[in-house]
Design a protein that fits this description.
The structure is a homodimer. The first copy, chain A, is mostly helical. Helices cover 66% and strands 5% of the residues of chain A.
Chain lengths: 112, 112
Amino acid sequence: MDKQTQLSLAFAALADPTRRAILARLSKGEATVSELSKPFGLRQPTISKHLRVLEEAGFIRQGRDAQRRPRQLVVGGPLKGVDAWIRPFREQWEGRFDNLDSYLENMKRPPK
Amino acid sequence: MDKQTQLSLAFAALADPTRRAILARLSKGEATVSELSKPFGLRQPTISKHLRVLEEAGFIRQGRDAQRRPRQLVVGGPLKGVDAWIRPFREQWEGRFDNLDSYLENMKRPPK
């Protein structure tokens, strides 16, 4: 899968509040479908469907316990790609007051 | 619009490579539909449709020139929310080697 497709899949997976909340939960430690079902107040097939989307996008994977089949967060994973994509924009908004300063500085100069 | 809905709209808008490329282009300066149409090799109605999605998610707005109707990036905008959502995950993957260190440190201790 090329980088752009992977990034599109990642963003699409994150466009759902339940999936974002599942990722936040799994960042604290692995959990099974039934362990996720209760706190989220969702039926297990619904949770499984969300987990499938997250797994296809590379955010999560099966844990080691074959019996319980817990899911765990892939630390870093596609979020690193998302973060790298945002970085130049972040640099722009973090630098915007510097730019505003130099803009105002230019305004003060007499016109040529 | 509540924060979660706004975040979902933002992620959904970013799930398309053309829309991501348009945002990257607009981060360099405002552009009209026709100015975007050529380099992207897309028809103007297609560009307009993407711009509508980006505008609804709050990423872009109309520039000041009423005649040309350029679109400009909202510096910061919904990307700040996306960035804030990713932050705890970023801290986790950036800290993972520290955690590994302390894990290995614990391994060395004699069992109680």
